[in-house]
Amino acid sequence: MALLAVVAAAPIACASAGNSPLLPAAPAPATSVQLDAHIQELEAAVAIEQEALRVLISAGPTEGDDPLLTSDAIREIAARLPALQDELRGLARERAIAALREQRARELLNNPRVP
Predict the structure, then answer these.
(1) Alpha-carbon gap, residue 30 to 19, rounded angstroms
(2) b/e per residue, 55-77, with b = 16+ CB within 10 A?
(3) How many whole angstroms separate alpha carbon 96 and alpha carbon 30?
(4) What is the pLDDT of residues 60-75, one digit of tens each?
(5) How many CB atoms lie within 10 A of CB 98?
(6) Which residues are within 8 A (CB) of 61 and not within 5 positions of it... i.e. 6 or more apart?
(7) 20 to 30 A Cα–Cα from 34, which one of 43, 52, 90, 100?
(8) pLDDT at 7 over 50
(9) How far apart are CA 84 and CA 91, in angstroms?
(10) Angle at the Cα of 63 (from 61 to 69), degrees rounded to 5?
(11) What pLDDT score does 31 carry?
(12) Cβ of 91: how many Cβ atoms within 10 Å?
C-alpha cells in the first residue's frame, strides 16, 4: 500500500517541481559552441591516428624491427579509428540540429507572432 502512495504522489511532486509528471527532465541540448569544441577535439584525434597509421604503413618494417609489433600497432589504430570517425559523424549531425534550433530561436525572437 505504501508503494501506491509513492506512485500516486510522484506526478504531483514532479508537477510541483515544474517538470512533466510523466517524463523525467531531459538534459539541455548541447550548444553549437560546445559541439564545435568537441568536434575539433575529435578531428584532432582522428588526424593524429591517421598520421600514425600512415607513418607505420609507409615506413614498413626496418631491419631489426619485429613485424608483429608494427602489425599490432596498426591493428590497434585501425580498431580505434572507425569509432572516432563514427562519433565525429554523430556530432556533426548534432551540430546541424543545434544550428537549426538556434536559427529557429533567433527567427522567433526577431519575428514574434501577433495573435
Answers:
(1) 20
(2) ebeeeeeeeeeeeeebeeeeeeb
(3) 11
(4) 666 766 665 567 788 8
(5) 19
(6) 67, 70
(7) 52
(8) no
(9) 11
(10) 45
(11) 80
(12) 19
Is there a contact between 46 and 81 (Cβ–Cβ < 8 Å)?
Answer: yes
CB 11 within 8 A of CB 20: no
Contact 94, 35 (CB under 8 A): yes
Q: Where are the alpha helices (DSSP H) in 60-110?
A: 67-110
CB-CB neighbours of 107 under 10 Å: 10
Computed over its alpha carbons, how large is the radius of gyration of the chain? 25
Whose cell is 589504430? That residue is 77
Q: Which strand (E) or helix (H) includes residue 32? A: helix 32-59
> Residue 3 is placed in which grid cell?
508503494
